[in-house]
Amino acid sequence: MDKNLIKKKYQKKINLYNYYNKKYYDDNISEITDSDYDKLKKDILDFEKQYKFLRSNKSPLITVGYKPSKNFKKIKHKVPMLSLANAFNEEDLINFEKKISNYLDEKKKLELEYSAEPKIDGISASLVYQNGQLTKGLSRGDGKEGEDITENLKTIPDIPKKILSKDFPKQIDIRGEVFIQNSDFEKLKSQFANPRNAASGSLRQKNPNDTKKIPLKFIAYTFGYEKGLLAKSQGEFLKKLKDWGFKINPINKILSGTKNLMENYLEIENKRNKLDFDIDGIVYKINNFSLQKRLGNVANAPRWAIAHKFSANKGISKILDIDIQIGRTGALTPVAKIKPINIGGVVVSNATLHNEDEIIRKDIRVNDIVEIERAGDVIPHIVSVDLKKRLSKSSKFVFPTKCPSCGSNTIKEFNNTTKKKDAVRRCSSEGFECEKVSIEKLKHFVSKEAFNIDGFGKKIVQKFWDLNLIKLPQDIFKLNFTKIEKLEGWGKLSVANLRYSIEEKKNISFERFIYSLGIRHIGLENAKLISKYLKNSSNFISLSKKENYQDLLNIDGIGETQINSIKNFFENKINVKIIKELNEILKIQKNADIKKDGILADKSFLLTGKLDGMSRAEAKSLIEQNSGSIISNVSKNLDYLIIGEKPTKRKIDAAKELKIKILDQRDFLKILNKTS
Ligand code: IVH
Q: Would you say residue 69 has pLDDT above 60?
């Protein structure tokens, strides 16, 4: 397509997008369905991905809708909405009680009574009632000022709009939590990251009709300003809330003594995964209102209350099944399918079991009740099995001795370094003979660090495999585009783009080529070392003929393990056929192609943050191909700092201090002459 035509089409889409945004956010009118709106947005993003020269600051990548704060009026809370101090263990609770006792300084030791209330992880809201009528509903905001979300809150069935009870105060702000039940969230999980996000997003809709569509719930637990409240304790107040028609938490309790608080805490933590709402701790409040009053507040939290938090990253669930996944290197990885559970705001339904040894060591079985831990972005894993809860008829898990994909024997190799058998069991097929391994190898072949073919992701690999369009890597370069064009979701334009991206990537560096083959133990670094040593792909291919693998031992960093792996690779006829054919089709750059007098000669670079559509490895190799070098710290020796998305502020500050030139992706590509 002509560049001007593309620009025109793109601009048209942007104008439309801005028009719908303005209508929606300023005039509160939806002229387009949500899914059509999302489609339009995706369309723009796809366009930008395909035609990199299009990026503009009008792009939805940059302008994410209109500011939501414009939507709602800010209103001051008559009594601030405070937060709570946290406790994490029994010692913290003992200290909390001690501080209170000291503060009250009573002659005789007080037996302090608490209202222990599960802390629902939702969004707090304040409901202002005047003469029994709900007049305003506010979000917490910054605690002092909230947003006026009255109309949205009114759509929640749990919130009474009019209260006729005689003992209902003339004026009162009832406060509580807006949330979504886990069972309801199941149906919404494609739209939101977690139940809390879903609740918060729905409450902030400009149009209350959109809020109404989401099954929000409300549980009341405290009050702010009040005139005419006749309750002497939190327990009494909670009872009244119920009489007035509010929902209160069904597992609230009145308790005293830190021992009893601990017992209740552990009991609730244990049944946490069976509750239909997410809780992240227990709130303890001094029950007696006159004591609460005496205790007052510190900064922005009351002295009379504390939140006893659950450890955020663990949960209890049940193993429903154990699946075996097969990786690119034939490794069989067992994965536990667990009853979905929310851990720290993320719904977890899979947990890795690592390998066969791990299953044996922990004796993990289907139907076991297990503790699951999720730390950071790593895949959740099983910490322990609750043996007391094991069913008597349960039997040991038998690890498959045949590959579930191709039926070959599975083996545990002897590890020369550890002098022990590997913990990992592998499919013994030669790679491309096993369906699952082949698919994984192909996914690796097109991945970011390897061929990085635009628009050719993991899903496409699977789809093309299922349609028999690709079985071996070279098939990617012999695709039947006429057939693809007829597939659902494909058209002339998308096929032309795919064709273009594939064609573009036929020109590949020697090191990336080696890496893309997915030879075990040959990652990016080793591929680079080998490419430097062997210089070109013919030398690489002839390794198989000459069988002089030991020669590679000259490379600093390459050892027996890597050499054995390369040997195994070349001993497989299919692999040899693959590289020979690829060598014919591709233009594999010689290592010597890397110039010493390129445009970046003598210039050093440091990258911080993520670049768009380009991996760190690709940027690095681009720099090196043009004779530049990469260094790992900001120092006087650095010439350019390239910043991508979410850069490290420290590096930018240091670079500014040293007056080092800072480039964004565009500037960087401009230097390389890669943009228009
Ligand atoms: S009492 C002045 N009770 O916890 C006391 N808060 O960190 C503060 N929360 O923003 C409120 N369940 O969203 C109270 N039973 C409960 C609660 C609860 C959840 C949340 C609330 C508040 C946060 C305090």
A: no
Q: Are residues 12 and 158 in the same domain?
A: no
Q: What is the pLDDT of residue 70?
A: 55
596, part of any domain: no
DSSP 487: S
- Beta strand spans in 228-331 (E): 253-256, 279-286, 297-298, 301-302, 305-309, 314-326
Q: Is 84 in the pocket of ligand 1 (CB under 6 A)?
A: yes
User: Nearest-CA neighbor of 560 among 387, 416, 460, 380?
Assistant: 416
Residue 349 near residue 338, CB atoms below 8 Å: yes
Q: Model confidence over 475-494: pLDDT tens digits?
A: 999 999 999 999 999 999 99
The enclosing H or E element of 546 equals: helix 537-546
Taking alpha carbons only, the member of 386, 392, 380, 332 closest to residue 356 is: 332
How are the residues of the chain apportioned to helix, strand and coil, as percentages rounded to the nearest 5?
40, 25, 35
Annotated catalytic residues are 119
Q: Cβ(657)–Cβ(641) under 8 Å?
A: no
Cα–Cα dist 207/317, whole Å: 38
Burial 195-216 (b: 16+ CB within 10 A, else e): bbbbbbbbbbbbeeebbbebbb
Label residue 621 by pLDDT band (50, 70, 90).
confident
Instruction: State the average pLDDT over residues 426-430.
Output: 89
**297 and 327 in one domain?**
no
Q: Which domain holds residue 321?
A: 313-427
Domain final position from 276, 292, 309: 309
Q: Is 199 in the pocket of ligand 1 (CB under 6 A)?
A: no
Q: Is 642 helix (H, G, I), strand (E, B) or coil?
A: strand
Q: Are β-strands 145-147 and 74-76 bridged in parallel, bridged antiparallel, or unpaired?
A: antiparallel
* Whether residues 78 and 138 fall in one domain: yes
Hey, whose CA ends up nearest to atom 18 of ligand 1?
119
> Do residue 418 and residue 457 come from a single domain?
no
Q: Of all residues in the chain, what percent carry a pLDDT higher than 70? A: 92
**How many A from CA of 434 to the centre of ligand 1?**
55
Q: Does the Cβ of 60 fall within 6 Å of ligand 1? A: no
User: In this predicted model, what pLDDT tens digit does every residue of 27-53 receive, in sequence order?
Assistant: 545 566 655 666 777 788 788 878 878
**In the chain, % of residues over pLDDT 90:** 55
Q: Which atom of ligand 1 is nearest to the CA of 175?
A: 11
Question: What is residue 32's predicted lDDT score, i.e. its pLDDT?
Answer: 67
| Residue 254: both structure tokens together | 């009145």
CA atoms of 203 and 201, how far apart (whole Å): 6
Provide the domain count of the chain.
6
Residues 324 and 401 reside in one and the same domain: yes
